[in-house]
Amino acid sequence: MLADSAPTVAEALGAGTPAVVEWKLDGARIQVHRQGDRVAVYTRSLNDVTDAVPEVVEVVSSLPARELILDGEVIALAADGRPLSFQDTMRRFGRRINVLKQREELPLTAFFFDILLHDGETVVDDPLSQRLERLDGLIPGSARVPRIFTSDAEEASQFQKDALARGHEGVMVKLLSAPYAAGRRGSAWIKVKEARTLDLVVLAVEWGSGRRQGWLSNIHLGARDPASGGFVMLGKTFKGMTDDMLEWQTKELLARETHRDGHIVHVRPELVVEVAFNEVQRSPHYPGGVALRFARVKGYRPDKKPSEADTIDAVKAFLTGADSERR
Questions:
Q1: Distance between CA 323 and CA 327 in Å, rounded?
Q2: Which pLDDT score is estimated for 282?
Q3: What is the CB-side half-sphere exposure of residue 49 using CA atoms within 13 A?
Q4: Which of 77, 193, 251, 311 minimizes the number of CB atoms within 10 Å of its CB?
């Protein structure tokens, strides 16, 4: 199940409908299957990463159940409990790592927030409130994502501030009456991030100049358009890129080249990139009618598919000031 975005907790709560508000972790999404003594761990792209995450296997093996499917997040934490970067977490999923050595140096912690199957009973059609009751009866608090139940925007905002103070991205606001809609994105789950970021798709890229001569640098960003099934360009950015990132994206984007238009290399829309920005503003220069102001790259998201990128509607939800009033 996927989430839409909202700029504030108050907007995510809507008309005061009871909801659960959870920490939003910047880790790797996992789905864990257990059948008897066998435990398998999958990423959101369905890669089997069981061998890379023995910590997760141990936690789920200890639960009082014969059969489970759990939805959650795994993340690398510092000694003080604060989250390390997403890139640090993803180091544990490399193909050639020494798992035992990495586990000692970079331990992972699993946090679960939903349950899809329990001892032969499929519960995806149950409301979230019932699924959470079942989850609480199975999983210790240390392995559950911290959360509160509320319909009050001020209480939710205070919870969000606490999550941010602890180093997390923000919060998730989830409708308690909603079933689990696998693979779908909608208003039942809404993410609220303090640092405004979007997951976008690279549509094209321009060759750099000066110090970046010989590297593909300025990327063209696209949001997903559910109506057409394609992507809508929002603008370009070359900010926030390290030399390592420039080298990596040059190799990866050339491998996805479709054609060229002068210094612009058009690519298959396959790479998802997380982009931070100050605000969204209306713009006649781009097909979507909006553009990102002061966009900069936070990092690529190899754990996400283009179909999981943010939508053009999610981008327009960030329109501010007078622009927002004209929506």
A1: 7
A2: 87
A3: 26
A4: 251
Which residues lie across from 71 on neighbouring strands?
31, 114
Q: CB–CB of 201/269 below 8 Å? A: yes
- The catalytic residues are 24
Structural domains of the chain, ranges and CATH numbers in brackets:
1-25+149-194 (3.30.1490.70), 197-325 (2.40.50.140)
Per-residue confidence (pLDDT) for residue 215, from 0 to 100? 96
Given a cut of 90, whether residue 70 has pLDDT beyond it is yes
Q: How far from 12 is each of 35, 154, 209, 317, CA to CA, in Å?
A: 36, 12, 43, 11
161: region left, alpha or beta (phi > 0 left; psi from -120 to 50 alpha): alpha
Tell me if 237 sits within 8 A of 298, measured CB to CB.
Answer: no
| Residue 15 pLDDT | 67
Residue of 113, 67, 74 lying closest to 92 (CA atoms): 74
pLDDT, one tens digit per residue, over 241-299 is 989 899 999 999 999 999 999 999 999 999 999 998 877 888 888 888 999 988 999 99
Burial class (CB in 10 A: 0-12, 13-18, 19+), 11: middle
What does the DSSP 8-state code read for residue 315? H
DSSP one-letter code for 54: H
pLDDT of residue 8 exceeding 50, the answer is yes
The SS3 call for residue 326 is coil
